[in-house]
C-alpha cells in the first residue's frame, strides 16, 4: 500500500477506533476493496490528515454536511467518533443548528434524533 494509504489507515483508526476499522476490514471483499482504498487514501489520508483544522472541527463539519445533504446513515458513526475527536455535545448541537438555518429544519431534526439515540447507546456501553 501507499504511504497515503498507511497514513489514512492510521488516522481512520484514531478517529473511528480500532473496533470499527477492524469490522470494516473484515467485511471488505474483492468487490469493494477499490472503494475502501479510495476512502482510506482520499478521505482519511488526504482530508482528515491535513492539520489545517483539528479533528474536532472536522467532526463538526462532517456531521453538518452529512445532515445538510441528507446522508443520515453515517451520522451515528461520526457521533461515536466524537469521543475520539474532542467534539462535544455542545459542538454537535451547534453544527446541527447551522444545518437547520442553512439546509432545513427537518434535516437538522432528523440528525438530532440520530445523535440523541447514538449518545444514549454510547452512555449505556460506557
TrEMBL record:
Residue ranges that the Swiss-Prot or TrEMBL entry lists as coiled coil: none
InterPro entries hit by this protein: 4CMD/NDH-1_regulator, AhpD-like, CMD-like, Decarb_PcaC
Pfam families noted in UniProt: CMD
Protein origin, superkingdom: Bacteria
An annotated Gene Ontology molecular function: peroxiredoxin activity
Domain Carboxymuconolactone decarboxylase-like per the UniProt entry, residue ranges: 35-116
Annotated protein name in UniProt: 4-carboxymuconolactone decarboxylase
Provenance organism: Litoreibacter meonggei
Taxonomy of the source species: Bacteria, Pseudomonadati, Pseudomonadota, Alphaproteobacteria, Rhodobacterales
Amino acid at each position: 500500500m501507499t504511504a497515503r494509504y498507511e497514513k489514512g489507515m492510521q488516522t481512520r483508526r484514531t478517529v473511528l477506533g480500532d473496533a470499527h476499522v477492524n469490522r470494516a476490514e473484515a467485511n471488505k471483499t474483492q468487490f469493494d476493496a477499490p472503494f475502501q482504498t479510495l476512502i482510506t487514501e482520499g478521505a482519511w489520508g488526504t482530508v482528515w490528515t491535513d492539520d489545517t483544522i483539528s479533528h474536532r472541527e472536522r467532526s463538526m463539519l462532517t456531521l453538518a454536511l452529512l445532515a445538510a445533504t441528507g446522508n443520515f446513515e453515517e451520522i451515528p458513526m461520526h457521533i461515536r467518533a466524537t469521543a475520539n475527536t474532542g467534539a462535544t455535545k455542545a459542538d454537535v448541537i451547534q453544527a446541527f443548528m447551522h444545518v437547520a438555518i442553512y439546509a432545513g429544519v427537518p434535516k437538522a431534526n432528523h440528525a438530532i434524533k440520530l445523535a440523541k439515540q447514538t449518545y444514549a447507546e454510547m452512555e449505556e456501553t460506557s
